[in-house]
Design goal:
Layout: E1 4-9, E2 14-15, E3 24-25, E4 29-33, H1 34-42, E5 46-48
Antiparallel strand pairs: 1-4, 1-5, 2-3
């Protein structure tokens, strides 16, 4: 099974995934295959998700 990564859609961006017509919008968290997440991160559409526990919340 491929590794997956959780990423967050960046402000001002929308990510379309799957057959649905509605995008994931800024702030939405997605779990994507690592390769797909790396491509979207490199193009500036998403950023790694920072778990709330890491922020001390």
């Amino acid at each position: 099974m491929a590794d997956t990564v959780r990423v967050k859609v960046k402000e001002g961006r929308a990510v379309y995934r799957g057959p649905g017509p509605h995008p994931f919008r800024a702030g939405d968290v997605l779990e994507l295959p690592a390769e797909h997440a790396a491509t979207l991160t490199a193009s500036g559409h998403v950023e790694p998700e920072t778990p709330a526990a890491a922020l001390g919340e």
